[in-house]
Amino acid sequence: MSISPETKTKYEVPIKQVEKTIKITDSAKQELKSSGMMDDKGKLKLKGVSPKMLKRMKLESVDCPVFEKEIGFIQCYVCSNFHSRISGIVYCKGDPL
Ligand code: SF4
Question: Hey, how many other C-beta atoms are within 10 angstroms of the C-beta on 92?
């Protein structure tokens, strides 16, 4: 039996569509680079994410309950609190960061 995301996560955060990409913060960029998910030129290299998906993810955002601000979905996707994404909802562990 699989454990449903609700039991492991604190927040269910709806994903919104945005007109303009929300920039990844400098500190998040550093984290991405150090974990090999971004190259020196700032190009993202996410495992299992096609360029087409990446393009779509850039135009999505969440109102993050932990950082208490709007964050681009890519930053959310690589966040240590990210558990899963199911039909437009991010299941977030909600740990203080
Ligand atoms: S996974 Fe991270 S960025 Fe996304 S909503 Fe949770 S705390 Fe915010």
Answer: 23
Going from the Cα of 92 to the center of ligand 1, the distance in angstroms, rounded, reads 6
Say yes or no: CB of residue 13 within 6 Å of ligand 1: yes
> What ranges do the domains of the chain cover?
17-81
Strand-pair category, 82-86 with 11-17:
unpaired
pLDDT at 41: 93
Euclidean distance between CA atoms 97 and 87, whole angstroms: 25
Q: What is the mean pLDDT of the chain?
A: 93
* Cβ contacts of 12 within 8 Å, gap of 6 or more: 6, 89, 90, 91, 92
Dihedral over Cα of 75, 76, 82, 83: its sign? negative
Please work out whether the CB of residue 76 comes within 6 Å of at least one atom of ligand 1: yes
- What pLDDT was estimated at residue 8? 82
